[in-house]
Amino acid sequence: MGKKKLFARLAIAVTAAVMCLSALVGCKDTYRLSYYDELDSERGYNENLFYLNDMPAECADPTCIYIDDESDPDYGWFYMYPTSSLYGGHGNVCYKSRDMKTWEYVCPIFEPSESSWLNERLWAPEVIYDKTTKKYYLFGSAANNGATYNKYRVVFRNHAERVEWNKTAAEVEAAIDGKTRAEAVDALKGIVDEQRAFLQTVECGVEQPNGKTYEAERVSEVLEYIADVYGVKLIWKDASHLELSDNAVAMQTNYNELLFTAVYASAANVKAMPNNFCYALYVAVSDSPRGPFVQYTNAPGDEGYDESKRTLTEADPFVAAEDIYEYLYERKSEYWQNVTGGSDGKAAEARAAKGQVTKSEAEAITIIDVHPYLDPISGKKYLYAAVYADGGNYIIGMETGENWTDEPKWETLTRLTRTNYFTPSDLSKENESDLTERNLNEGPYMYYKDGLYYLTMSVNYYMTKYYSVVQAVSTSPMGPFRKLSLAEGGKVLASEPQWDFMGGPGHHSLCEYDGELYIIYHSHYDRVGGSGVRGSCFDPIVWTKNADGLQVMHCNGPTYSLQPKAGADAEYKNIAGKAAITTNEKSADVNLLNDGVVRFFSWDEFIGEFECERTETTITLTFDDYRTVRALMIYNSFDYKKHFESVEKIEFEAKKTINGKEKKIVALIEDLKFDVDRYINKEEEGFEFMRPGGAAIAEFDELKVKEIRITLRHDAPIAVSEIAVLGK
Q1: Using an 8 Å Cβ cutoff, are 293 and 302 in contact?
Q2: Mean pLDDT calculated for residue range 360-372
Q3: E strand intervals along 258-360
Q4: Which option is the CATH number for 53-146+277-560: 2.40.160.60, 2.115.10.20, 1.10.10.2840, 2.70.150.10?
Q5: Of all helices (H) and strands (E), which one includes residue 166?
Q6: pTM of the predicted model over 0.85
Q7: What is the per-residue DSSP string for 80-148?
């Protein structure tokens, strides 16, 4: 239905007697209200009133902040920092928006120098503003596989071992410097053979003439690795095999393997753990949310160098794998479940699925997805991140110093989660999680409300439709945290198996604006399968109580339906919560109609909907005074068996200026349609399902309204999830 004049006088043939009766009872004139029902997909929708998660910004792992400092040139804008493909992931970029939906690319904000350890795959950046320093701090994770830091892709138990490894590697590289490939191969083979012979007879636990002390377990690992390289990975008939090959890639791979083996054998006195997934954390600083950000360093010669703080050069990660290994694994080994048995095959997979890891499986450590958090209660600063080991991954937390660039307080480093368990320390059957985590906890984000800390994180694999966001609760920012079960509302954001409109919603951030909380997340353009390229989405977070009375975070989403516009440019807000609601349904809870909560998931049984059991249901919203109203949204049930396909009529007790005089009238809408084609899948009889979050919508010119009466006529019981009134 197109927009016409605001009102068309309701043409009704009436008798003189009826006209007299209307006058006697003081009936108001009734006008048919011209409206648009948003059913014409080709026409589009009114972007001044609504948003749709059609993902115009292609990105992953989005973090969003709102600039609320009125003195800032970017005041009133949202800034988003995603994982980007800039120069192969060699930098960070930002976007800005007024509404979190329509994003404008701004510029690159951080490009590490050539001398930095940051050389590829800068993932999941987060930016936080510090009101004391008036600086913006960019945190992120990056691969450290460059010659400046981690050429050989190994991690260690501590930084001292990395220094020893680098020294040994330099000696091996010097031995082949200037040689031809064939000469280098012979030299490297000689080093490997010499070290193998030495290690086969070395006395462990006693300092050797070379000044090194060897551990028996480590020596055994190195000898086993050498045997594996000679017997399985490479076939060295002669030097020419590595110098000349029909396959240049294979030739280089074999040579690199030989070089690594020579260093690995020569540095057998340190615990070098091969890890192709080598990431560490960085921090950069800027005066503006749009950058440029500069990598934080504190070294002699740097401007502002502070000798009382730890020394960091561009070649040093802010937090490295060695920090996590030394302070968490070595010093807090109670966080690991040492399980007997081998580390191969289905036995290892079974242990990993339960979050249990053997010592050897735990040793290949890397760290990503850093999240800076300022506790609003204590004022303390914290860092959270996801740690990966061969046996699984988990979330850690640690306190920082007074400044974001201070060295973390390593003694506070704590493991906060265990995959597939509600709590990390209890491995009983009763403590196993029902959140379908698939051995993955990543992308942490913290939020405080009413005495509780909510740790949200992504679970399952990001390249599936089941990637989702869950929540854990604690009374302290350092735990202990307990993940909530499905029945408790544990899943904040997810995709049900049958859904065909949203796949893999996850890796999120939380952003406050004007007293409201929003979740910004990525989802796949492949809405059915949940794989491939991703784009940014957002939806509101509301708070509700579960069956146990615990206040939990609930997302009105994920949505692929029209929702009320957010942000500084949103002229109208949902004012339904300001209205008193009555109904002719005796047993239904009218508070469910304007509590702000829309049900999406089958497992959220504690979230109710307004049940309509009469053949004709009337719902009345009454405001204290006349309010300017621009649109009405009546949300359908999440349950196909309780859905409605139209609204019988809507009557607005309103005011209208006629001939210069303000007059009380009734504005009428009849037979408002619900978009069945868009929001219901009826492809297979008996397996129909809703695409939750859809509403019957009426958009019209501004109308001064005191009361709204909604009439639903139905042959079978139906349910209404929520009512939104866009106005002011």
Answers
A1: no
A2: 81
A3: 273-274, 279-286, 294-295
A4: 2.115.10.20
A5: helix 159-176
A6: yes
A7: EEEE--TTTT-SEEEEEESSSSS-EEEEEEE---TTSS--EEEEEEEEEEETTTTEEEEEEEEE--STT
